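### Sample
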Amino acid sequence: KVPDCRGDSDGPRRGSLCAAINNDLAELGCHLHRPRVPTGRLGVGWAGNGALEGPTVTPCVPPAVSTPSCCQQHSEEVCESCLVKTTLTAENAVEANKLSNNYKFGFKKWKSHVTARPWEDRSEIVKELYSDLNVIRGSGGSSLTCGNVLYLLLFGWWLSLLYVLVAAVMFITVMGAPYGQLCWDLAGYFLWPFGKVIQKVEVPKSHQVCEAGVGESSALLGGPTPLRWRLHCWEGTGYWHRASTAVWLCLGYPVLVVAHGLVCVTAWLLIVLIPVAKLSARAASRVLLLPPQRVLIRRLRMTEVPLEGEVILCCYRAANPYYYKYAVDGINVFAVNLLPLVLVTLVLGYVDSPNHLTGSAVKFTLALLSIMPLSYYIGMAIASISAQSNFAVGAVVNATFGSITELTFYITALIKGSREGNRCYAEVVKSALTGTLVGCVLFVPGLCMVIGGIRHQEQRFNSRSAGVSSALLFLSVGGVFAPTLFSKVYGKLVCGECHNVTQNPLGHYLCHNCHFDLMDNNGTLYYSHVQPLVYTVSILLPAAYLIGLFFTLKTHTHIYDIHISDCHSECPQVSWLFLSLLWSVPHISALSPVPGHHHSAVVHWSRWRALVILLLSTLCMSACADLATEHISPILTNSTISQYFIGVTVLAMVPELPEIVNGIQFALQNNLSLSIEIGNCIAVQVCMLQIPILVLFTIFYPTNFTLVFSDLHVYASMFSVVLMNYIFMDGKCDYFQGTVLVMVYFILLAVYFFAPSPSGC
């Protein structure tokens, strides 16, 4: 513990010690404003205002301690933040770089590991997920569980029946009798495999077994000699053995492999039943290919532990609810399961163009669902490349591919609308842009607050970093909607149909389909005033984004309080007395490399592999976006739901589902700063990057897209931004404030649901 300076009874000696410690603390805090290069096992991340991951240590500050000269160049608030730091630990330099990138403005926030975690650092729950089904444990309780019963109802009964039928066929062939006996034993095993073990054993010599007779006992687990061993006495090792194997491989094995393959695929897709998938895969690849005399099936007693032979299968539970954490080569199991959906979508979309097999609604749904795993792969590739590269490469990759998911869909929709002369596509794109903005400002942080508030009573975040994002968001929203407000002031109101409700020429008129016409007098207002304003805004917004990047990543990095440090090489000014005190505190030991815990980075995806996956995912994303826009037309024309609602909900939020999942995971770890930054960064990129890119695209490829939004989009966006800044003002929140944001979001969705369709649709 750091000694308390107030009221100490040890006299001036203890007071001078505490003063020296606090001088070192202040010097360390100001010294950490400069970025470092990560090496070894590192401590990552500092938060002066908000509670991030890890503990917070507040050293004592005696009234008489003078502020070092290095701190005088910063404001008093910054100097105070030097004394309160939070540490995040990383297993290696690559992982530390990824964690640091999470707190950089403009970089994609990614929760999953980009490197393989050391096995000894994982929890027992995760270790069980990756363990093979060949480990014999002690008594784990009753085998009668809900998951095991579910296995019996879904797979066990018919799989056991199939083994009985195959066993009958094998016995009929006579030559396949040993395999028939094996299938009979396996029928009982797969009916209820829990608490049983399958072993590969060494078979006693045939003459020894025959001489021993029926009463001979097995030397492995006790009990009578299996019938398959006695059948082996007359089976022989020559022609009869080869004939028996041939019969098995022709008649029995293919049927069982197909059945186990079906069980494996179904159980894997259900995720919680992945142990059943492993069970079936190992049975088809190992058990069924062994000679029948080398397979031994036994029920494990509570005190019985096999000492001889190789354990092939030993399963205790059919279901595990924690398999949502399971990953294959760093890829989450949900993304793995959705990858075949992309292939099905592309095949159906481009092979069945006349819609003979499926309709447009099915193809549109499949194309939209396929965007989710592709967004995950793009995010994983960006995070992997950024973590293994320098800052410049990471910034270029994030700026280039960070918004590729949304831009791909928007551009393909605008191209299709321009070819068909349909203005409805441009209105849908505007609705999707507004829906992304509103959803990332209200729904994403609100949902994270609610879910995180269930575990943590009150969550804090860095209000200064959130203030920077909020300022950029205010600027971006004002710039995006400036042409719209300009058109409302100077445009001419034109109505499609008006009726006199009082039959008096001077009475009241009821008008329908009214809008501000910008093309009056041959489009003088639009081409002379509105369009130059749009181009000016499209130049200023990216420039403001670059200034924000320079401000947060170069000149004012201390606002985010993020640092990667190796104290042995980076903190020479800190006294050995202070270092010894730091190392005496368990939670601060992550500031320096921990002896015996140096782990080399084993990345899931190398930079070249990540680049190839990024390019392939982007290509598939373009194809899926093309299919979605190709088959959205019947939905827009025949659906009774407003086109506003379709754009604001489905088209806007489905591509952001991986980001929402990342935000929820950060919130559950009491790291609400990143959850908020995820929503803010996406909203800022929509206004400052995506919309200017769309405007630039319309210059080279004329479309119906104009930067003039409906009144509903303007009011919803501005109200959302104001409400978000009011909620985030004090730097702390709870589930109630999150509920307010989510409820306001649903109210806006209700408004869009009941709103009439936009003009041109």
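The two ends are 68 Å apart (CA to CA). This sample (VNX1 protein) is used throughout the tutorial notebook.
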